[in-house]
Amino acid sequence: MVVSKIKTQAEIVDPEKTKPRAQLLLGGARMKKTTLLLCLGALVSLSHAQLSDPEEGEAEEHVDLFTTPTTKMAAATSDFGYNLFRQLAARDPQASVLLSPISISAALTQLSMGASTEAEKQLYRVLRYHTLHDSQLHDTLRDLLSAIRAPGKGLNSAARVCLEKRMRLKVGYFNEVEKQYGVRPKMLTGGARDLKEINEWVKQQTGSKVDRFLTTPIRRNIGVVPLGAAYFKGQWVTRFSQSGKRENFQVDGGAATQIPMMQQDSYPVKLGFDPDLGCTIAQVPMQGDISMIFFLPDDVTKNMSLIEESLTAEFVQDLSNQLHPVQVDLALPVLKLTYSTDLLPLLSDMGLSEWLAQTDLVKITAQAAKVNSVHHKVVMETAPEGSRYAGSATVSDGQTLPLIFHVNRPFVFLVRDEPSGALLFIGKVLNPRDLA
Ligand SMILES: *[C@@H]1O[C@H](CO)[C@@H](O)[C@H](O)[C@H]1NC(C)=O
């Protein structure tokens, strides 16, 4: 895949010195032309004339994006995730949200194994698999899931299909899913036991972190219930020396709320400023080749629509290549976030309404089978621990101004597996207390 990319050197004018101090990067992403600048704080004045060199602008460069089956699969699950996130964010623009979409990809893929060819095609389109041309699709997904769940990455996720027994189920489907994904679809008998068993299974799969997955007993005639759950607690590469101090988190249209923060000077991150999105973006490395990417708008705002709309696997991959390694005064909220929702209404908005009206799950049952909910519950935590200490205040690249990145107002974040590019978690936090 070719992404046209412009790299231009420019100068940041330092009132004290006259020599160039930093390189600014300009990049064009396919979906949306986006300019990334390394932002050295408000003190720096930029000359836009210096940033657009028409000759270099013609240069095109091949970017290695998603070249293996696993990374292509990761891109597909991520794009499904960004679409799901957009739908969820649009459902209530005033609400904080949190998702681990890959668990939903996994659950719906298990379901697709029971579908007719036509129904499978419809599901694949929404899951973004139609772009893959992968004859080993299930093996590829299984490999990706096993890679991102490796110990040391901090992710526990679970996906399963539950089916009502009275539908007269075909045992072949159960065996096939179990063989492929190591999890046997659950037969529901309709009663209090179902709730207890599902909740216990989810709890066990997530290291006891996702508790009370279902809160209301499953009705009879429940039909088909794909479910996904996840817990994430990663470890930073670089630890935070200060943690727990309560600081203001400014909320749009309300009083500031006090939340515990972790802070560290001279913290190594990758940083960029995107003037089109009006936000600064920081990628903070975690152990196990994971990173957390924060999109922090310049203003205190609930309106993240520009950021939400820009998110694609390719855009984020581009970002990851273009952000600039720097050391910053970093402050992040100490988070414990929980979120639970039924994603079924979103799936119909994403192009599955016809499919949901007539699911055509011929390999599961000869009867009409209705998907009744797609339950999703996720929990994630951040803590100050990390294996390394931050360096001293000496900074590289002639950077002399202290950069500040304090996540103390509404933000969007991603948790991403770097080797594959897979999106593990995505959230919009308007007020951390919304997700308590
Ligand atoms: C949010 O921001 C976008 C882009 O700036 C704007 O078009 C839209 O009207 C805003 N939405 C609301 C609800 O203010």
Structure description:
The chain is α+β, with helices and mostly antiparallel strands and 436 residues long. The protein has 2 domains: 98-149 and 155-233 and 339-378, 2-Layer Sandwich (Antithrombin, Chain I, domain 2), CATH 3.30.497; 236-336 and 381-435, Alpha-1-antitrypsin, domain 1 (Roll), CATH 2.30.39. 28% of the residues lie in helices and 28% in strands. It has helices spanning 48-51, 54-57, 69-91, 101-112, 117-126, 137-148, 171-181, 192-205, 305-310, 313-322, 344-357; strands at residues 2-4, 60-62, 97-99, 155-164, 186-188, 224-233, 236-238, 242-249, 257-274, 279-286, 290-297, 324-333, 336-342, 375-381, 386-388, 403-406, 411-417, 423-429. The strands form 4 sheets. Strands 3, 8, 9, 10, 11, 12, 16, 17 and 18 form a 9-stranded mixed sheet that branches. Strands 5-4-6-14-13 form a 5-stranded mixed sheet. A two-stranded antiparallel sheet has the order 1-2. Helix 3 packs across helix 6 and helix 3 crosses helix 11. The protein is globular and about 70 Å long. Mean pLDDT is 85; it is low at 1-63. 2-acetamido-2-deoxy-beta-D-glucopyranose is lined by residues 303, 305-306. 2-acetamido-2-deoxy-beta-D-glucopyranose binds next to helix 9.
